Amino acid sequence: MSVRTLSILISALLLGACNRPGQAPDDGTPPAATPPTSAAPVESAPSAERSPEPQPATPVAEPARVARADLQPTEGNTATGSLELRAEGDGVRISGRIGGLAPDTVHGFHIHETGDCSAPDASSAGGHFNPGSDPHGNPADGPHHAGDIPNQRSDANGNADIDVLVPGIELGTGSSTDVEGRALILHAERDDYTSQPSGNSGARIACGVIGAS
After folding, report:
1. In sequence order, which residues have a C-beta less than 8 Å from that of residue 101 and are 6 or more positions away?
2. Which residues face 87 on adjacent strands?
3. pLDDT digits (tens, 9 = 90+) for 33-50
4. DSSP codes, 75-96
5. What are the angstrom distances between the C-alpha of 124 and each of 74, 120, 170, 171, 209?
6. Which residue, 92, 50, 40, 52, is CA-closest to 213?
7. I want to staple 145 with a disulfide (CB 3.0 to 4.6 A). Which of 3, 128, 152, 158 is the partner?
8. Cβ neighbours around 126 below 10 Å, total
9. In this structure, are residues 213 and 96 in contact, taking their beta carbons and an 8 Å threshold?
10. Would you list the DSSP string of 142-171?
């Protein structure tokens, strides 16, 4: 090999060593662009799932205590009626109708202590319901029996529409003021709210036992 040929080979090797990847070749041509490396997306750590907070239990309303009393006439009378008794507030509401009365008349109306209407005159129902041993009186004013109820008036057709709230008594509780199992009685005359022990309200013309509805 001639000295000239050897010199050409050495020059070619040196030129190739200078043109490394990523550098512009000596002829001024820019190197090919290297595509950027895409960074892998960083996944956020999953947030811990929160358990739902327990909700307070919805209180269940206690069903209203309800009872009925079907009044039947005593011997020689014609008064009858169906009454509903419902616990309300601090007492018991009595509602319904009693028919078979003389027109435009006023009648004493009471809860009696014993739920027994078997006697022809309803004397088996005992006296007024009176757990507090109070004197008989006006239920709207002053001391009175727990079983004292305002007088009831019949209309021109002989019907008495009853709708009265009797405070201080209960229904179906088993307490000393519970009237379930006792009797409702309508009297022939007006209660004067004064005479003892029952207001001089005359004969018992209808009687009904208060029973669970």
Report:
1. 78, 79, 107, 154, 158, 159, 160
2. 92
3. 555 555 555 555 555 566
4. TT---EEEEEEEEETTEEEEEE
5. 11, 9, 22, 22, 11
6. 92
7. 128
8. 15
9. no
10. SS--TTEEEEEE--TTS-EEEEEEEET-BS
Residue ranges, the chain, pLDDT below 70: 1-64, 213
111: Cβ–Cβ under 8 A, 6 or more apart, which residues? 128, 129, 146, 147, 149, 166, 169, 179, 182, 183, 184, 185, 210
pLDDT in tens, 184-197: 999 999 999 999 99
User: Could you give the CA distance from residue 105 to residue 45 in angstroms, rounded to a whole number?
Assistant: 87
Q: Are strands 160-167 and 91-99 parallel, antiparallel or unpaired?
A: antiparallel
Neighbours of 93 (CB within 10 A): 17
Contact 31, 24 (CB under 8 A): yes
Domains of the chain, first to last: 69-212 (2.60.40.200)
Q: Is the dihedral angle over the CA atoms 188, 193, 194, 197 positive or is it negative? A: positive
Q: How many residues does the chain have?
A: 213
